[in-house]
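To: structure subgroup
Subject: Chain for Friday's discussion

All,

I'm putting the inputs and outputs inline so they're searchable in the archive.
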Amino acid sequence: MEIHAIYLKMFFTVSIFSLLMANFSSCSNESYSPSISEITSATTSVEMARKMTIGWNLGNTLDAHGDWTDNEGVFHSDFKPYEDGSDTETGWSMPKTTEAMISDVKAKGFKTIRIPVSWHNHIKDANYTIDPDWMARVKEVVDWAYNKDMYVIINIHHDNLSQSQLEDSTNYGFALSYDKAIQNKSKTYISKVWTQIATTFASYDEKLVFEVLNEPRDINGEVTGNEWWTTDKNIVAVITEYEQAGIDAIRKVDGNKNRFLMVPGYAAAGSADAILNLYTIPKDSATDRLILSTHAYSPNNFALAENGSAEFTEAGKGDLDYIFGFLKRDYVDKGIGIVMGEASATDRNNTAARIEWATYYFSKAKEASIPIILWDNMVTVNNENLGSGENHGYYDRNNRSWFYPEIIQAMMDATY
């Protein structure tokens, strides 16, 4: 998800897992620290999801990039060739991440941190070599959370290009396509990038989770005609092939034989079983180490839609009942763990309604044994963006304070 891209992800649902039963202080200023017994090895994907409990996204930061398309339809990347990759971290108006920020997130009760990462704008050569300075920066941020006994998720985030963009030999990334040359180029990219990531983090235990792809989809609808919705089972099958390439590459690196991996279906849709049912989870040499990754900014008209409703209604509760019902029935109850990698309700100057939403959403997620990872892009409502669906700011990284501590507390109360 991007700060400047207002997409109506109306069909997305998030799978969220049951949260650990633990006492959590109702005081919003007190910190929560997991006991040593909670940071233990999980034996199944469902158990791992439960352990991750509740999380927070370092949104629009290490995933930021300078890609854009001009009026002639020509694709550009402001950060390629690579010059100073560190510029990308603050390229979308985020401050440079500090260890103190990570400490604040943990102190608020979040047990998991998802760190979205874009790599295509940090590739140095045609062999897909990741710039070592960029890898070192990613590792530094990961270490801050990992060393605090948090679960950490890193991924390939905004490396999904359109077919026409990837046809340009100077662009790096992957694209959904029926063109075998594009498919082979995509699989090579995914495999090479994950091999380097897996090598860098080979010594890390299961608290570090790899999310193979983020919201894989047909960018601009060039192949299927619709970027965010599809009934094309064949194009969804390409996602499975791409993820298989990533999984195989990771498993070949010593130290990663049993690491938990997250895999999404088309666009990581979690709110529409019609889309999710098209997706086939890849095969894995490890036993029960694949977790389904889903996103759900739901109900859409309240949580995401541009100029949507500021009221959280009974109908909205029904939408969430349906979403978490089928995710639990079709996946969790069948032994497939789910992590809702992104979820939020946009700020429409409606704090009371968002508190009600947070209580209901996170409670339903807990019932389904699905952890929620809150999306945070540090954008709150103002007169200029009152109708925006992209006001997903919760933590003020500039001042190290929380915009809406009462909403966060509602999430924690529902979770713990």
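Points worth raising on Friday:
The chain has a mean pLDDT of 89.
The radius of gyration is 20 Å.

D.
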